[in-house]
Amino acid sequence: MDLAISILLIVLAVIVSVLGTYLFLHRNRSFLIFHPEQHRGLRLFCTFFGIFMLFCAVLTVSVIFFDPTWLLVTVIFLDVLSTFTVPFVLWGYTL
């Protein structure tokens, strides 16, 4: 795999792991305008997506060492899907 792609995958893994860690650590305390300690659904969302994003970050780092293109595309799709879903679900809690 090309060096530039490997570096960009590491940057993507860092971004996804930071977001996942933030969601997971704030599942029992308030953040921004949200209060997961008061809403069970929001707490479950933060727990699930925090773990899922950390899993995606580990997959992103591990795909650097494997060559199949389909695996690379699948992992990038999972990263984008998990990162893209979070703001829309949180937006739903503001309504």
Question: How does this structure look, described?
Answer:
Helix 2 runs antiparallel to helix 3. The mean pLDDT is 90. The protein has helices at residues 3-25, 40-62, 69-92. The chain is 74% helix and 0% strand. The chain contains 3 helices and no strands. The protein starts with a helix and ends with a helix. The protein is elongated, with a radius of gyration of 15 Å. With 95 residues, it is an all-alpha fold.
Question: If helices are DSSP runs of H or I spanning 4 or more residues, what is the number of helices?
Answer: 3
- Sum up the overall morphology in one term: elongated
Tell how many strands the DSSP assignment holds. 0
Q: How widely separated are the two ends?
A: 45 Å
Task: Describe the sheet with the most strands.
Answer: none
Class by helix and strand content? mainly alpha
Helix content: over 70%
Layout of SSEs?
Blueprint: H1 3-25, H2 40-62, H3 69-92
Descriptive key words:
single chain, 95 residues, mainly alpha, 3 helices
In short:
This protein is mostly helical and 95 residues long.
